[in-house]
Amino acid sequence: MINVLKPPKLNKGDTIGVVATSFPFPVDKKNDYYKQYKKGVAELGIMGFKVKEGQNLGKAKWWFAGTPEERASDINSMFADPEVKAIIVHDGGQSAIATLELIDYEMIRSNPKPFMGFSDITNILFALFTKTGLVGFHMDLLTYGLGWVWQDIVPNQKEAGRKMFYDILTSTNAPGIRTPLTNWECWNKGKAKGRLIGGNLSMLSSLMGTKYFPKLEDFEGNIFFWETNNTESYRIERGLYQLKYAGVLDVISGMMIGKLPDIKRTAWKGFTEPTPKDIVLTTLKDYKFPILSEVDFGHKTVNIPMPIGLMAEIDAEKLKLEGLESAVI
Fold first, then answer.
1. Number of folded domains in the chain?
2. Is the pTM for the entire model greater than 0.90?
3. 107 and 213 belong to one structural domain
4. What is the pLDDT of residues 88-126, one digit of tens each?
5. Would you call 271 exposed, middle or buried from its count of C-beta atoms within 10 A (0-12, 13-18, 19+)?
6. Which of 67, 74, 85, 227 could join 14 in a cystine, given CB atoms 3.0 to 4.6 angstroms apart?
């Protein structure tokens, strides 16, 4: 079983490092994308944090933010920098997996800090958790989340987002019962208590079978959470079967599913196209664990932080999620 490593808490005035591990950083200051980045930085300022940009921020190669070496260098440098107290990824993308073999896990174990992001960043969160035990801060990205979703998609939830973001980094108290921001759904009744573990379903599938994916015993009795977006519906079924065949679904105590926006048709016209709920319940028909769905994490939503490795409790029928321990010390 992985020994969980909690980082020190942040205080107002602390510096958060910004890195680009996946999609390139916006360098054109007249572009809306850059303006979203600046809005994200402004949100950190409202919460009382300073920002320090990675040395290689702005690099680009193909569809990612510089070479794997450049991106990993910024990750390592931020963990080694005593001025930086936490690290946030600018945006998701498709290529964080290429940095994993270049990350200095021994150094990070000696300098634990919150590393924040989701989607493609699942790769790094899982690698850090597997190799060092560091709590995975599965929460909003800077440009995509704070700078776009908070401002344009669900601006009415911005205040709630700020409080959750700030509290998970600064409070040594357990989060307690999470107040739903939207309508959650019970897809299978029951209660479960265990460590939170999960992330983006496609990224988890990519990591499975590698040294960066936790052992089966590390899923024992835990609450597995996942989200996905902008993908074909068959990928949901495929990802769940991968988890089933790997034995993960046999040992978990419960499941949480986040938002599933922009799921695309798999079938040709004329065939029946199932909903994501149909796919999940059909694929998981032999399992009795509770399933709490449409929870506020993932894409196009303000993210309730889902700290990988920490104890939580769910009651699917009551639409209840309770965080039982702090993410920082």
1. 2
2. yes
3. no
4. 999 999 999 999 999 999 999 999 999 999 999 999 999
5. exposed
6. 85
User: Alpha helices of the chain — where are they, by DSSP H?
Assistant: 32-46, 68-80, 105-110, 122-132, 158-170, 201-207, 234-245, 248-251, 276-283
Is residue 5 domain-resident?
Answer: no
Cα 20 to Cα 74, 101, 315, distances in angstroms: 8, 17, 37
Catalytic residue among 43, 70, 227, 237: 227
C-beta separation of 262 from 232 below 8 A: no
Mean pLDDT of 1-9: 96
Q: Which of 119, 206, 253, 326 is catalytic?
A: 119
Angle of helix 276-283 relative to helix 234-245, nearest 10 degrees?
20
- Residue 101's SS3 state is helix
Q: Is 77 marked active-site?
A: no
Q: Is 210 exposed, middle or buried (0-12, 13-18, 19+ CB in 10 A)?
A: middle
Compute the distance between CA of residue 97 and CA of residue 68 in angstroms, rounded to an integer: 9
Phi/psi class of residue 109: alpha, beta or left (left: φ > 0; alpha: ψ in -120 to 50)? alpha
Q: In whole angstroms, what is the distance from residue 70 CA to residue 72 CA? A: 6
Given 206, 293, 299, 326, the catalytic residue: 299
Q: Check whether 193 has a pLDDT greater than 90.
A: yes
Residues composing the chain: 329
Q: What is the average per-residue pLDDT within 65-80?
A: 96
Domain end marker among 109, 136, 170: 170
Whether 22 is catalytic: no
Residue 270 predicted with pLDDT over 90: no
Mark whether 282 and 204 lie in a shared domain: yes
Return d(Cα 142, Cα 74) in angstroms, integer: 16
Structure tokens at 239: 């990802």
- 299 is known as an active-site residue: yes
pLDDT tens track for 224-268: 999 999 999 999 999 999 999 999 999 999 999 999 999 999 878
* CATH code, domain carrying 151: 3.40.50.10740
